[in-house]
Task: structure prediction
Amino acid sequence: MMDQIPTFAVVGRPNKGKSSIVATLAENDRVAISPTPGTTRVAQRHVFCIDSEPRYALVDTPGFQRPRELLTWLQKRADSASDRPSVVADFVRLHEADPRFLDECELLRPLVEGAGILYVVDGAKPYGAEYELEMEILQWTGRPRMALINLIGEGDYLEQWRQALGQYFSIVRVFDAIHADFEKRVSLLRAFGELNEAWRAPLETAVKELAAERSRRQTRSAREIADNLVMAMTRSERVRMTDSDDVSPIKVQLRERLQERIRQREQSAMKRVQAIYLHGDLDREVKGMELLATDLFTNESWELFGLAKSQLAVTGALSGAAVGGGIDLMLGGASLLLGAGIGALLGGAGAWFGGEELASFKVMGNAVGGRVLQVGPVEAKNFPWVLLGRAWLHHRLVAERNHAWRAALVVAVSAEQNLMDAVPGSLRTEIAVAIRRVAKGDAAGDSYDRLVAVIDKLLEHDPRSKIANGV
Amino acid sequence: MRSNLVAAVDILQWLEEDARTPEQERIKRDRQIGRQLDLAPGQPRFRRVLAWWDEIGTRTTAESKTTRFGHRLATLLNLASGMLALFGFFVGIGIAGIAFGYHGDHPVNLFALIGVLVGIPFVLLIVSLLLLRGRALLPVSLVDAMAVLNPGRWVGSWLERHVPVGFFDSVSRRASHRSFARWQLLAFSQLSAIGYFIGVFVVAIALVVFTDLAFGWSTTLLVDSADVGNGLRLLALPWSGWLPVAVPDTELVEASRFYRLETSARSGSQAALLGLWWPFVLMTILVYGLVPRLLLFRIANWRTGRSIRTLLEEGPEITALLDRLCTPTVDFEGAVEREQPEPSAETPGVSGLDIDPQTAVVVWNQAMTNDQLSAWLSARSSISVAPVRASEWQSAEEQRAGLSQIDETSRRLLILTKGWEPPLLAFCDFLALTREELGGEIVIVIVPLDTTTRCVRQQDRDVWARALARQGDPKLYVVGPIG
Result:
């Protein structure tokens, strides 16, 4: 046997989604998926590693091409059922160089070497007698096997398939490779362990590590989002001026420069989040995320992703109360909750009466002469929420997108929907407190860690509970 | 400290550029280093970062190391430090030269001397310290005015021009960077002040050694010499215990009082007595001028070093780096087959499915039941057609037997297939067998039906057309979409 690690050969007729299943489970966008039969000509081995230590492997195989001839060859050479696996091995050995059976040899080789079988069919299309040839061949290999009913398209022939597959496979599962989320992928991996007792423990380890990695990716994304938020909130742009310069056009240019830098940084943060989830090739498709293609500084973006004025005031008051409450606590209650009261009043009023202007301008003296005009940092109270809302939605779309899904992502939304409605009030207050601390100056250390933690918490919620998702 | 600064700046700049490296590549590289160096999460963060940086250094060229901003910044800082110290030194020499100006008509006024050489810098020192902590409490105009007076600020502005564009995008918002900048500027100011006091001290020593100096004090106020003596002895308290010669006694204080209306003629012994002030003057310059600046310089350096260390410990890039160093990588490794180019050639299409007496029909792989087939044929022709059934589970002999039932006069053969099942090589074998049996003249039309057996979907049709193009059969067609 070649493998000490559990190995699964994904087999089946061409175009039934074998490569999609491998792409989804191996989280690999580069696995070739094409409607043209024969796209996979050579078995592709994908080894799941923890710190480069192999734990299990998936082998993407070409489909059967001449099952009748193959089965006839086998049947002529096996006298009893016990001979069958060795006859299959003989077939592979004797036909390695035979151009007529290249695909069959590629497909059977991993099975001869000890791999388990994941037989893939399309449950959206009717069952046909032609499948019996290959199911019989797979039976001949004597390897543990599971049938996966993939769903490509809209038909529903699941019962037909269950009836037929049940006669050849001990485990039959439905797995939609295109839409399977992380939980479904993990559940399938666990099911592989049912094929062989010895495979259960390594697969369980793999599942745990995948879950831990999933959580790490979310935290890494939270860091990217926090980083972008901090940058956008603390960024300012400056230009040196002489006393004779006309300030008005310089102000316009400076404001545009600030906005452009923030836009660019947001795009780069989104790319980084995509890279964290190994979706490096989404560039073109991101444009399909219509909501996120809306410019960051348009009213539409602010209305959808930001907080409503009343929400802003309530959140401001609550976060002000939280900060003031901290002072009350420090004074052991001697302040009679005055801190919380004043904090709430100031926070709420600040948010309610806060200016709509993105950022204000300052003219400063320069140490080496002349003047310096500065715009920023951004002061608009709703701005961090807009940025956060966009990042939140983007993260969810990217994190849930699996690697077999090669179509564009589009999120449909109707007017008067506000993304932040999906955030529980208490979490909104926590976020507001964290944002307030960062805005006050310390964008690293504890304040930064706190911001990352609350964003991490936010990412666990689904922004689409408020919007419809259409593809 | 400079080496840590070089490392911190280079690391932050390198990490900024490294963000363009694919995420998985970075994770693998850093985890490999983390395992190689056995960087356990328990070790101090900055030590892990520096160890990682050393390892990265071994993988990069010497040229790229020297072109990084850290080296340039260190050079610029050293240059700036040297220039500031020299600047202070020469200013000190100049001001001391004026303050110690003694033409023999009146003694050097001690109050004016100490006030100019030590008092004003001392006040500036206090204001600097206030600015350091209480910047927000002071009027902006005062802060701006102080910035103009502060040599450290001049150098700060000069250095800003040498920073690569965008370098401080990530670091400038960190408290540790702001702290570094603040303390580094303070260190610059102190360096300049140290140079100044050394200049003053050198001039004082030179004048004491090579000229005769006479010091005195003078006031319009009705002040008793004893009180002045007490004040001066209070000033000399820090060194009175171990350097009594630098503490003025009552007699010296009394003898040193002068009035400008008095005649300046004094005896040699009197002049020598007035010269006895020099140890006190030197100690005042040292203790109230140089020493506080040295102390503050030391503190500023220490705080700068601490800020640099914090730069190496906190911030998103560093946290992400430590995460990569210390957490196991989870990934799939494997050769990825290059996506094969889609065949551009397609089997030609035909439109319409007229069935005439010279048309034969083969149903492949039970694409239709008998009932479906009857309905399908009767919808297209009134003539009776006897279809042949063939499949991939038949042997070649069985397929040949089926084909032999087809009338030799047939000029067209329709093969009805399941459109959703792309053609296997077994089907291509059947096509070859058909040619063998029926000859090269018969037109073969493939009809890939959908699951309702009534339509040919464009998508299925295209898959079949591309796959069968490999046959290179000039009389093979795939029917166009029908519905």
Observations:
- The mean pLDDT of chain A is 81.
- Chain A touches chain B through 81 residues (CB under 8 Å).
- The first helix of chain A runs from residue 18 to 26.
